[in-house]
């Protein structure tokens, strides 16, 4: 896998209470993760961020699930990338399918790319989520949708060193319908080929591509064996001790 460090994200979404987060952080205690081999990032809801940071093991990093598209100011209800850096969080997960597709949110490719560029410039690492809807897969549009979503970003950034791509087919998110290892590998390889053509061979070889969508303790090992799967973005299972089993699939 060309020296790409395995990476696992835990997207807690809009879930949790002080009590459940304390219990989860306790459940996630375990042997230290070898930082040279695996990077782990949890994404709590903003309001619990500082609380979760105090309770979560120190070798797991922390990020946010969204941020404003640019500099702060008169944008009521928003949180800027500079604020996220200021409180010591290193990551943002941007372009999640729920933010792209929920009718109340509907972020566009351009909005997501713009906020990603701003977040990168502010010093954050970004888990940049892409992926097709079921009807797009059925229409044979998987690669063209991924490429459209990536092109919006490729058009405005040149440094990919702090970008991790999370390929998350929308039909697999929260449905229990995980992509097969072959399906995921085929799409990851196509994404890497596109990066080689549209950006550079160096970026294609060095950029991590995570798989997300119904990853569990029982399917992670087979997925992790695939050469172009460099880790996972985990939703439901990131709220359970199973997250540790998924982290360990790098071994
Ligand atoms: C996600 O929300 O990023 C995700 C992959 O969810 P789940 O693991 O629950 O399918």
What labels would you give this structure?
8-stranded parallel β-barrel; alpha/beta; 251 residues; TIM Barrel; binds phosphoenolpyruvate
Question: Can you walk through the features of this model?
Answer:
This protein has 251 residues and is of the alpha/beta class. The longest helix has 18 residues. It is globular. The two termini are 14 Å apart. Phosphoenolpyruvate (PEP) binds next to strand 8.
**What would you call the structural class?**
alpha/beta
- Gyration radius, rounded: 17 Å
User: What's the number of structural domains?
Assistant: 1
Q: How many beta-strand runs?
A: 8
Q: Name the overall outline.
A: globular
Please name the CATH topology.
Answer: TIM Barrel
Mean pLDDT: 97
Query: Can you tell me the CATH superfamily?
Result: Aldolase class I
Strand order of the largest sheet: 1-2-3-4-5-6-7-8
CATH architecture descriptor text: Alpha-Beta Barrel
Low-confidence stretches: none
Query: Which molecules are bound in this entry?
Result: phosphoenolpyruvate
Order of helices and strands: EHEHEHEHHEHHEHHEHEH
Per DSSP, the total helix count is 11
């Amino acid at each position: 896998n060309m020296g790409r460090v395995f990476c696992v994200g835990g997207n807690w979404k809009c879930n949790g209470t002080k009590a459940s987060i304390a219990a989860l952080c306790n459940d996630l205690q375990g042997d230290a993760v070898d930082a040279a081999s695996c990077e782990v990032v949890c994404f709590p809801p903003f309001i619990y961020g500082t609380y979760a940071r105090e309770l979560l093991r120190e070798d797991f990093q922390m990020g946010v699930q969204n941020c404003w598209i640019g500099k702060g100011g008169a944008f009521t209800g928003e949180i800027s990338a500079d604020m996220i850096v200021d409180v010591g969080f290193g990551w943002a997960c941007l372009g999640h399918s729920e933010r792209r597709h929920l009718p109340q949110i509907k972020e566009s490719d351009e909005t997501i790319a713009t906020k990603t560029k701003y977040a990168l410039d502010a010093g954050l690492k970004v888990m940049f989520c892409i992926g097709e809807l079921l009807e797009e897969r059925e229409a044979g549009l998987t690669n063209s949708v991924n490429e459209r979503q990536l092109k919006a970003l490729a058009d405005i950034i040149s440094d990919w060193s702090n970008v991790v791509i999370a390929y998350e087919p929308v039909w697999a998110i929260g449905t229990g319908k995980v992509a097969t290892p072959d399906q995921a590998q085929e799409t990851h390889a196509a994404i890497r080929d596109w990066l080689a053509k549209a950006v550079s061979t160096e970026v294609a070889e060095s950029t991590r591509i995570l798989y997300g969508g119904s990853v569990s303790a029982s399917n992670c090992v087979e997925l992790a064996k695939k050469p172009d799967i460099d880790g996972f973005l985990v939703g439901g299972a990131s709220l359970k001790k199973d997250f540790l089993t998924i982290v360990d699939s790098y071994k």
